[in-house]
Design goal:
Length: 112
C-alpha cells in the first residue's frame, strides 16, 4: 500500500520498492480494494522479501512495522512508521490505515 501511495505522491520524482521481512503469497484483497477506491490499481502487486539488492538500491527505507518485526536495514537511512498491518482488518479499518499512510507518504515525498 505504501509503495503505490508514495509513487502517486512523488509524481515520478522518486522511485519506490515494496519489500517485507515476511511477505505473503499475494496482495491482501482488502488492501487492493482500499487502493482501488482512491484510483490506484494494485492487483498486479507481487509480494517480495527484502533482500540485499533492495538495500543497495535504496537511499531510505521506510519500515511500516512495530519494533519487534521491523527488518534490519544496514547502510540505509531508516524511517519507522508504527502502523498496524491491515491483513486481518475489516475494510473500514483498512481505509483508515490507507489514509494515514497516504498522509505520511505525501509529507515524505515533499521532504525528499
Amino acid at each position: 500500500m505504501a509503495q503505490r501511495l508514495f509513487e502517486r505522491a512523488a509524481q515520478g520524482k522518486h522511485a519506490a520498492r515494496s519489500a517485507g521481512s515476511a511477505p505473503g503469497d499475494a496482495p491482501h484483497p482488502q488492501v487492493v480494494e482500499a487502493l482501488r477506491e482512491v484510483g490506484i490499481d494494485a492487483s498486479d502487486h507481487v509480494p517480495h522479501r527484502l533482500n540485499d539488492a533492495d538495500l543497495k538500491w535504496a537511499d531510505v527505507a521506510v519500515s511500516v512495522c512495530s519494533d519487534e518485526v521491523c527488518p534490519v536495514t544496514p547502510g540505509v537511512e531508516r524511517i519507522r512508521w508504527d502502523i498496524p498491518d491491515p491483513v486481518a482488518m475489516p475494510i473500514e479499518q483498512v481505509r483508515e490505515v490507507r489514509d494515514e499512510i497516504g498522509r505520511r507518504v505525501q509529507d515524505l515525498a515533499g521532504e525528499l
